[in-house]
Amino acid sequence: MSMSPEDIEAIVFYRRQKAYATLQEAEEMIQTAHWNLAIQRLYYAAFYMASALLVKNKISTQTHNGVVAQLGLHFVTTGKLDKAEGRLYSRLLQNRITGDYNDFFDFTEEDAKALLDPTKELMKKLDALLAES
Questions:
Q1: CA torsion 62→29→130→117, rounded to 10°?
Q2: Domain 5-132 - what CATH class?
């Protein structure tokens, strides 16, 4: 199924807004010492922005790992994102999986706070790429 330009713009607008709302949720979870939730929300904030970028560029994915792969293929290997930004996105996904599925594991304050600013910077970069698309 192919999307019209209007459909693409609507999805991109929605996901971009959701990305920033989710980033705000992550900050709130940090303020209230909910470290696992903060890690999860940081990932989803980046995910919504990355998936908006992919949709805008008519790049299809079916899974979270697919988003990682397509970002790497279309943005890291082309130099639009640097390797560190690609690794950060992958790390955010792996952290979300760890926090959601590993028994007897909890993230710490240091874990969550250390990822906040880098995630904000990644989102700014993804948003800038979105504006260029």
A1: -120
A2: mainly alpha
